[in-house]
Write a structure and sequence with these properties.
Layout (H helix, E strand, L loop, with lengths): L3 E4 L1 H7 L1 H38 L5 H54 L4 E4 L13 H10 L11
Helix pairs in contact: 1-4, 2-3, 3-4
Length: 155
């Protein structure tokens, strides 16, 4: 008989104590920038309102210059937000991969020790007995490992 186990990999990663701590650090680091982005967004909205008021006063060419300046500021703002989001997404992916490698290491040891022939991710099968689910066993082992929660700060 084939000895099979299942694991919910996403749950293991998301519930890992080091990953949770890491996400809190990321959130704290992001908060300062988010406040600055919010202030910049308010400034841009004020700038747009000012341009709307100037429509009645300025000539078409002067108004067009104002609109071009505004669009440049808006594009730069959007690029900065995109850069910000990509930076943190990359940091999270790096950490998830690190954790995934630790999980795979744990699974290799577990399968050798317990003579397991096949381990499936719980998202890739239809039905199983709860007795073959090793998610909590692996999560407990993963939480015992010391995983670095540092990351590259945004600048």
């Amino acid at each position: 008989a084939t000895n099979i186990r299942v694991i919910d990999m996403q749950y293991v990663i998301d519930q890992n104590s080091y990953f949770i701590e890491f996400l809190k650090k990321i959130e704290k680091d992001q908060s300062l920038y988010k406040n600055n982005f919010k202030n910049n967004e308010i400034d841009l909205q004020s700038e747009l309102a000012r341009i709307e008021e100037l429509k009645l006063i300025l000539s078409n060419s002067e108004l067009e210059k104002e609109i071009i300046l505004y669009n440049d500021k808006l594009n730069n703002f959007n690029l900065e937000i995109e850069k910000f989001n990509m930076h943190y997404e990359e940091q999270i992916n790096i950490k998830k991969n690190l954790i995934l490698n630790s999980v795979l290491e744990i699974l290799k040891k577990y399968s050798l020790k317990n003579k397991i022939d096949l381990i499936l991710d719980s998202n890739n099968y239809i039905l199983s007995s709860g007795s073959i689910n090793i998610t909590n066993i692996v999560l407990d082992e993963l939480n015992k490992k010391n995983i670095d929660t540092s990351f590259e700060k945004y600048n």
